Amino acid sequence: MRENSWRDFHSGDILGEKKKFLFFKTKRSIIGIMVLLILIVGLCLIKLNIPHKSTDLKSKNNSKENLKKEVQLSKNQLTQIISHKKFNTTDKNIFFEETPQAHYKITTSIDIYLQQYLLSLMDKLKTLTRGKPQRIALVVMQADTGKIIAMTGFDLENPDINPCIESDYPAASIFKIVTAAAAVETLNYTPQTRLYFNGNKYTLYKRQLKDVKNKYTTKTSFSRAFAESINPVFGKLGKNYLGKEKLDFYADAFGFNQVIPNELPFLSGKFKTGDNDNDYHLAELGCGFNTDTTISPIFGAMLISAIVNSGNMLLPSIVEHVTGSNGTILYKNKITPYKTAILPETATTMMKLLATTITKGTAKKSFKGASKDKVLSKLLIGGKTGSLYNNDNTVKYDWFIGFGKEKKTTRKIALSIVVGHRKYIGTRASAYGRMILKRYFK
What we know:
Layout: H1 2-49, H2 53-71, H3 75-82, E1 94-98, E2 103-108, H4 112-126, E3 135-142, E4 148-155, E5 169-170, H5 176-186, E6 194-198, E7 217-221, H6 222-227, H7 231-254, E8 259-260, E9 266-267, E10 269-270, H8 279-287, E11 294-295, H9 297-308, E12 312-314, E13 319-323, E14 329-332, E15 337-340, H10 344-360, E16 379-389, E17 396-406, E18 412-421, H11 429-441
Antiparallel strand pairs: 1-2, 2-13, 3-4, 3-18, 5-11, 6-7, 8-9, 10-11, 12-15, 13-14, 16-17, 17-18
Helix pairs in contact: 5-7, 5-10, 7-8
């Protein structure tokens, strides 16, 4: 009885404890279910919004590749960036350019000391009242790389242009290089080949184009005819022996009538035989005695580079490399062959002809004493001169294109110089050639 009473007394407490236990158990279950639901939802969201690790890495790599493609510069883009640069008046070889896209540091191949020397010569010329040229352009190029190491000059009539890349200068006797190369390859001429002409060396009359030998005929060698720039000999070559097809072929082989894809694009020069059968005009073309054939000074350096490099012509360049603001290289110059103009053995013969011009020909006076000079005596030197008045007879163009090569090393440069003299003849182009060789190789 008392036992039952005790049970009854505590039954309410026991029932309360059971209810409390069931409440907490249910609560824990609900919380567990909620946590589980949160975890499931979270995992779903992660799957929807966060890519796989490997996919993320690939995406980053693709972004880097896209960025790399965007910042690399093509030659055309570089041309646009530097198109306004006046390389013929600068004394620096590093430039900074800012565009909406990026900041660029442009490093060029310009030899500061040589460029400054030539600029100082130009400054002196501009102060002259007598002997100041109307136009002048000087280009110095590494013959085996095509890198331009100096480029300067001025044009009194057009002070804003770069005269070194203008192509309206009459080629004059510089074209004899093309004619001579054609004679070597197609007529088997050697420096010793005997040739004949009548009359004055520097005139070109129709009667001088006849193949006659009489008591008035002068006998000469091919090398002397080239060195002394004898017009009747090369006139007869153009008219009587080479003709239209061969002249056209070799002009094209050397690169005439072409836009040269340099960082500063320029026209090489103009040469046209025409559709008519004007024999006398072929003689004029063969010896350069005309104002129709033109070349640019920078192309003159290319002509010499072809001969110095065994017939292979190189593309000229002035930019070494371009870097962005973070130092990444965005453009890098490569030595680029342009075309093969002549055979290696022809180039060897042409080297001999060019050397004779210095020792016995039209450049002899400018290079007098070179064999005893401390600097020049260590060089192999060759060149070709040319001179011709413009159509108005107001400017006499005076050319010297040539090379200098150290006898004991592989260092060699190509030169191309043209001076447009006015009424008074000032410093000759070949004299500038001597100055440049002495300064560079000193």
